[in-house]
Amino acid sequence: MIGYITLGTNDLARGAAFYDELLAPLGAKRMMESDSFIAWNTGPGQPGVCITLPADGNKATVGNGVMVALAAEKPEQVDALYAKAIELGATDEGPAGPRGDQFYAGYFRDPDGNKLNFFCMT
């Protein structure tokens, strides 16, 4: 149902380097880009993750209560991707681990402060 999500950035090059490395283990590659926008997905017709410089020219800010959840296949992949995010400069918002009986997730903020997680159902 979700086609893509867009996250604001104030440094497109820094954001590109972060997401190029972070999303590669999921098989995501850049599928569209311009001087102010980059989008990744895992193939034609698949949902995408995008970063953009704000169109209005103002500073990108983080939405309070907004989070993007990225699906992983198993807890070990969540662990690896969460660790990769932290290694790439993300800040911890809740380490990878079980959340209830059937949900496993690791929460972080990207270098621009956007909140994301990797998750899987167990």
List the SSEs and their pairings:
Elements: E1 4-8, H1 12-23, E2 29-33, E3 37-41, E4 48-52, E5 68-71, H2 75-87, E6 91-98, E7 103-109, E8 115-121
Parallel strand pairs: 1-4, 5-8
Antiparallel strand pairs: 2-3, 3-4, 6-7, 7-8
List keywords for this structure.
8 strands, four-stranded mixed sheet, 122 residues, alpha/beta, single chain
Question: How is this structure best described in words?
Answer:
By secondary structure, this protein is α/β, with parallel strands linked by helices. The protein is 20% helix and 38% strand. The protein has two helices and eight strands; from the N terminus they run βαββββαβββ. The strands form two sheets. A four-stranded mixed β-sheet has the order 1-4-3-2, covered by helices on one side. A hairpin with a 6-residue loop joins strand 3 and strand 4. It is globular. 26% of the residues are buried. The mean pLDDT is 96.
